[in-house]
Amino acid sequence: MAKLKIKKKYSKTEQNNIATIKRFVEEVWNEKRFSTIPEIISPDFISHYEHGTIKGVDNYKEVFIKKIISAIPDIHVEVQEFFPHSDYVVYRWKAQGVHTGMLFGMPPTGRMVEINGMNWTKIVDGKWVENWKSWSLGHVVNELIEQTKATKEANNALMVLLDQRERDKADIEQNIVASVNDMIIPYIGKLKHSSLTKNQSNLIV
After folding, report:
1. For 97, 118, 172, 189, which has the most beta carbons within 10 A of its beta carbon?
2. Considering only CA atoms, which of 121, 153, 146, 151 is closest in space to residue 134?
3. Chain segment 112-146, per-residue pLDDT in tens
4. Residues in Cβ contact with 102 at an 8 Å cutoff, skipping those fewer than 6 apart
5. Is the whole model's pTM more than 0.70, yes or no?
6. Do 115 and 108 meet the contact criterion of CB atoms below 8 Å apart?
7. Would residue 32 be called left, alpha or beta, if left means φ above 0 and alpha means ψ between -120 and 50 degrees?
8. Which of 69, 73, 76, 46 is nearest to 59 (CA)?
9. What is the residue-wise DSSP string for the chain?
10. Mean per-residue pLDDT, 99-116
């Protein structure tokens, strides 16, 4: 089996393309500078996902980037590896942040999330023209749904226990009252008719 040869030196174009990816990640995702987007992405940019395609830089900014940042305002993206080749850059990344807004239909949970993914981006004359993305967002959303469901079930169980405790408390109070009526009050009545000193009589009035 032939060994995979990993390129050690990159051409000037490949170095520039890597720099463009780094700039986008740092300025757009981590610093939330949306003004950088049209400087890097072509107006006719196309981005492909497992469940569809986004066309145009404005749609990409509004429908994708801003929605994710709105759902995870403190999101921080780190590129872990680059694999440039001519006009293409494949890169593996990790994003982390706290889910505090609506995330593709998932209400905020306040939980820390981690999304892992890989992009294959075509860059022409310093501008992104097309992108293919594979990421774990679907898995993350499903995890949040399950965690939210588990939390809701735990809260429901706790409410049942608290309700049962209140009912048990009421039963105990009723039993105490019944015991006082059945045993103590009749006994006090008998004491009143027995030979007691004046001070003793005053204590049970």
Report:
1. 97
2. 121
3. 888 898 999 999 999 999 999 888 776 677 776 67
4. 70, 71, 108
5. no
6. no
7. left
8. 46
9. -PPPPPP-S--HHHHHHHHHHHHHIIIIIIT--GGGHHHHEEEEEEEEETTEEEESHHHIIIIIIHHHHHHSTT-EEEEEEEEEETTEEEEEEEEEEE--S-BTTB-----EEEEEEEEEEEEETTEEEEEEEEESHHHHHHHHHHHHHHHHHHHHHHHHHHHHHHHHHHHHHHHHHHHIIIIIHHHHHHHHTS---HHHHHHT-
10. 86
Residues whose CB is less than 8 angstroms from the CB of residue 105 and which lie 6 or more positions away in sequence, other chains included:
141
Taking the C-alpha atoms of residue 80 and residue 92, their distance in angstroms, rounded to an integer, is 6
Tokens of 17: 């393309």
